[in-house]
Amino acid sequence: MRARGEETTNTKLATGEIEVLTDHAEVLNTSVTPPFQIEDGIETSEDTRLRYRYLDLRRPEMMANLKLRSDFTFAIREALHNREFMEVETPPCSSPRPSARDFIVPSRIQPGNFYALPQSPQLLKQLLMVGGVERYYQVAKCFRDEDLRADRQPEFTQVDIEMSFVDQNDVMSALEEVLSDAFGRMGVEMPTPLRRMDYWEAMDTYGSDKPDTRYGMHLVDLTDIFANSKFKVFATAANEEALSSRPSTPRAPVPGHVPRSISSPAWPPRLAPRAWLDSLPRGRSINSPIVKFFSDEEMAALRERMNVEPGDLVMFAAGPRLLSDEILGGMRPHMANALEIKREGHDFLWVVNFPLFHWDEDRKAYAAEHQPFTLPIETDIAKIEADPLAAGSCTYDFVMDGFEAGGGGMRIHNAEMQMSMLKLLALPRSAPSRSSASSWRLSSLVRPRWAASPWAWTAYACCSPVPIPSATSWRSPRRPAAPTSCRAPRVPLAAPSSRTSACA
Questions:
Q1: Is residue 397 part of a domain?
Q2: Cα-based distances in Å from 259 to 94, 265, 418
Q3: What is the CATH number of the domain that holds 245?
Q4: What tens digit of pLDDT does each residue of 92-140 get?
Q5: Per the domain annotation, does 160 fall within a domain?
Q6: What is the pLDDT of residue 100?
Q7: Using 50, 70 and 90 to split pLDDT, how confident is the model at 416?
Q8: Which element (helix H / strand E) includes 327?
Q9: How many domains does the chain have?
């Protein structure tokens, strides 16, 4: 081996500054010409890469991904083991569950009977807890016969965690320590304790229950400004129910022209009519088809509330509080990506206090926001009968860089409380469908200057209150995603207030 000459050095290769001298060479086998180069940055279709997966994995970037996953899994295991968690493998074949979308496997020795592959080890791990395993975890393989998502396949791996004789703060603190250790092994600093953001604060400020807070474009409530507007769409939304307002937020200038990708996003049909592209100040004028309906007082209040300047773009949405939040929440990453807004560092936080119920318009009844076994917030127990939609739940999602990387919650361990919940829900034999509630709101969105790199992992945790284990999986399992990925959004309960808001 010797150093290469200056004229033959290849700085793009890790071994580009040396060369190996050989006495002889032996060809162990021959092959046809590979369908693509074994190197990073190849321009090859995904179908081709998957067809020749064994060649694709030889590329350095793919091998680095496998090593990262292996190292992080080991770091999680080590962190949990050091905190006296016990890893237990649960059986992969069990009985099918009602209303679940299980993959089923026919039994050879019992014709006509089937096994179900696990969606999660939930029931089995709870039995472990009852049996005295107070701190359990498992890197579990799970299967769900569901439509594909960008961040989850029908077959996936989750980190499952269960604890007994704890409260919500105990669980979140323990998980912060575990994650901080694991991320630290990966060279990523995660300062603890993590900040906690209330569910409605996340929705009303960022339009998402998994907000990326590394850039602005905050939603701003405009309900009070347009309560008496001549523009009936805004006035109707502003006066549907009680009014409220929120302060102005940071914004950033828009370039000389608005990219087409911002002006005409690919929204689902049901969302398109509810979003307005609006207010594009050019010097002293405002370019908008609806500005003619605004009074001078409304325009002045809008400018002040939104803190808009020439070149800023403002977007409005009017409708149910949650729906308008989600529309503008979908616009935030859409606009940030179109404008190539930089997102620096990593952003970690908890989103807590999710609603306990939402109103099911189809059934004309209350439905569980997560599932009917979620423990209500202690101070909200009295609200369950008096005002169910105002009751919060002991749930929490771990959010990283705008991705829901994990989630969990406390389970009801009191039989009387559980029966009261089931009675209120009047559960049918089949799972109820979800639909929007009746609260309305006018929202608007103003544009910014910050944004993010997708680096996330998938985990599930099941955490129990005292004294019996209870569980919720780290990722809020059956909650449909918000339209940040342009999927059909969920529309659970609208909070008890209606408003007009904006994002700049």
A1: yes
A2: 52, 10, 52
A3: 3.30.1360.30
A4: 988 887 666 899 999 999 898 999 999 888 889 989 989 999 999 999 9
A5: no
A6: 67
A7: confident
A8: helix 321-338
A9: 1
- Three-class SS of 171-216: HHHHHHHHHHHHHHHCCCCCCCCCCEEEHHHHHHHHCCCCCCCCCC
Measured distance CA(154)–CA(57) in Å, rounded: 21
How far is it, in rounded angstroms, from Cα 362 to Cα 372?
18
The boundaries of the domain holding residue 271 are: 195-504
For the chain, what is the total number of helices (H) and then of strands (E)?
12, 20
Backbone angles phi, psi at 335, to 5 degrees: -70, -40
The encoded tokens of residue 158 equal 């989750």
State yes or no: cis peptide before 193, omega within 30 of 0: yes
Measured between alpha carbons, how far is residue 290 from residues 54, 259, 260, 279, 295 in Å? 57, 21, 20, 9, 11
Task: Give me the residues paired with residue 348 across strands.
Answer: 400
Strand 86-87 and strand 135-143: pairing?
parallel
CB of 409 within 8 A of CB of 472?
Answer: yes
Contact indicator for 486, 230 with CB cutoff of 8 Å: no
Q: Does 248 fall in a domain?
A: yes
For residues 447 and 2, what is the distance between their CA atoms, to the nearest angstrom?
56
CA pair distance 409, 426, nearest whole angstrom: 22
Assigned domain for 143 exists:
no
Give the span between the Cα atoms of 424 and 409, in whole angstroms.
20
CA distance 119 to 385: 32
